[in-house]
Amino acid sequence: DTSHAESWLNVARARLKLWQYQEGLQAAEEGLRRAIRRDEFGQLYSIRGQIYTAMLLLPKAMESFDQGLSYTPKAPRLWREKGLLIQRMGLPREAQPCFEKALEYDKLDSLSWRLLGDVLREQERHKKAYEAYAEALKLDPRAAVAWARYGACQLALARPKDAVRSLEAALKLDPDMDEALTGLRAARQALKG
Q1: Residue 19 burial (10 A CB sphere; 0-12, 13-18, 19+)
Q2: DSSP for residue 37
């Protein structure tokens, strides 16, 4: 039934996955015209922001995420998406509060923990990043990227033995991960002295 906002939201999501951005935007706009509930508005502004991000229309994406948050200020996904956008703009310090806000509303979101670790690591706050990656791995121990970055933090904290174990764990999950392969070489070199 195309009279419901949720149907248009699903169309917009499908169009985004197919890289059909204009059609996705049209579906999101149609959904916004039909939305009634605050959560519908929040989700539709979120998908619109994701489409604008994919199109590299970053100011429009930011506006969409902010509009979504005006309807659903406790939506962790919107905070995470806004943080990703800000991080993509090269502003890790400014992105950090978005990931912290996402975690305030959903402490079990392993992706937000990893993304928080990423922005902390970009700021060379390795101990805090290490702690964030540890939380991400408690929630999702099969996250190869989190293992690799956890290992990178261990190396930065002068713990090469631990780094080797973490980077090997990453490679067990994703044997071709360049980040983990490079980190493992560096960790083994650090062990040699």
Answers
A1: exposed
A2: S
